[in-house]
Amino acid sequence: MSEPAERERLRYAWRALSVVSMASIVTALGSSSLNVALPEVVRHFHAGAAAASWMLLSFMLANTVLMVVFGRLADLFGRRTLYLCGLATYTGASLLLGFSPGAWWLVGLRVVQAAGGAMLLTNSAAILTDAFPRRHLGRGMGVYIASFSVAQLIGPTLGGFLTHRFGWQWVFWFNVPLGVACLAWGAVTLRRTGGAGQDRGLDVPGNLLVLVSLGGLLFGLSQAGERGWADPVVLAGVVLFAVLVPVFAVVERRSPHPVVDVRLFADRVFALGLLASFLNTVARMAVVLLVALFYQAVHGEDPVAAGLRVLPLPVAAMIASACAGPLHARMSARAAAALGTVTGTAGLAVLLAVVSADGSYAPVCVALVLIGAGSGMFMPANTTALLDELPPHRVGIVNAMRLMVQNTGVVMSTALALSLVTSPLPAALRPSVFAGTLSRLHPAEVGLLVTGYRLALGVMTAIGVVAVLTSAGGRRAEPAGRDLARPAGLG
């Protein structure tokens, strides 16, 4: 590519990055702000533990099972159209959420909001990968991931402030003007892109199997905290997933237009990269929610104070993500991802060691900084490593696979954390944890909740250790080379 052509491409790439970053801030605000504001919303609706969990999990479930569908549709019909539809859907749902008349209405509207979020997330990294020259992609991806960290930085504190000062509705309504502005800028900026030409097949059986199998697994996991891990509903969801996975693999190998190209997993580096993404997400994504709930349920703090407590994690993630470009200039993307995994797991180990009902906040702050820095290093590096070598017509579906795996990790992290944290408590007291009132209503039971926190953090730390080993395996496999553009067996 000539120098003038590269400069012109970079100018468009940075404009596209501004759209994608704005949209990522809007979507991340919708989840991170509710993590801190959840107790206030639960108290407003007098919601039980099941409804409280589903206020978070409904978004994650719907967002995850729709990822691959929208990734394929974007490859077929163009990313610009689907991206702008996603912005409109997400913004409209955010407006309606503030008018929810009941807890389960809110849960339903969160599903609609999740559909818009899936259209955005499945296209964001793909748009950037198309727009940026390969040697600048690490910088662009670092800024994109940093935008999530900015939202996580603002979300908990701002969500707590708005809920405390103006009411829970503003946790959703403050997304609306940002979404409208981003929609207008995206309509002006993003270039129209063609679809996949004559390759317009849609794998209907594969999509249905994804929805049923993954939906069953995530529904079962989401019920574990309320029903227990031995409950038939939980076991049925896990068994359904286990039975349908091999069926899905057979169907996808025979499909001319697979929703998930299972032959990609024959590449060891790609498979380990996806596995590392999943394990890192399971190990770390519930930390903000757990810490925010801890300071409200154990210390009786208000949402604003709890939001300030979790601030070090997104600040560290934002700084680490913004430094992704210089870091990638000194080491490979997979080496940076491995370093992030080690750093984040060390933070989890510190948090496990210091969590207590009357402990100092200073060591908790150190742990949050390590976890945030690890996440900020890992996410852009791992994304770049997975997408950098793909041809344009496969970026959308592979990115959707990456996001589906990552979102499955988010749901599993949340379901595991909420289940383990409340497991030592009697079932009748669990709603007071979500409402943030345990220390006021049942002070004698705070010790049981701390035990639950240690159990949850112990499991998350162990998963982090496995993630470290997976990242190390990916680095050892790297010199063997890759050919994701044309996996074995493809004609």
Q: What is the end-to-end distance?
A: 29 Å
Helix/strand class: mainly alpha
The mean pLDDT is 80
Order of helices and strands: HHHHHHHHHHHHHHHHHHHHH
Q: Whole-number radius of gyration?
A: 21 Å
Shape: globular
- DSSP E strands, number: 0
Report the β-strand fraction as a percent range: under 5%
Q: Segments where pLDDT lies below 50 for 5+ residues?
A: 479-491
Q: How many helix segments?
A: 21
Question: The biggest beta sheet, please?
Answer: none
Binned, the helix content reads over 70%
Structure notes:
- With 491 residues, the chain is an all-alpha fold.
- 79% of the residues lie in helices and 0% in strands.
- The protein contains 21 helices and no strands.
- Helix 1 runs parallel beside helix 5, helix 1 runs parallel beside helix 12 and helix 18 packs antiparallel against helix 21.
- The longest helix has 43 residues.
- The protein is globular and about 70 Å long.
- The C terminus is likely disordered.
Briefly, what is this?
By secondary structure, the protein is mainly alpha-helical. It is built from 21 helices and no strands.
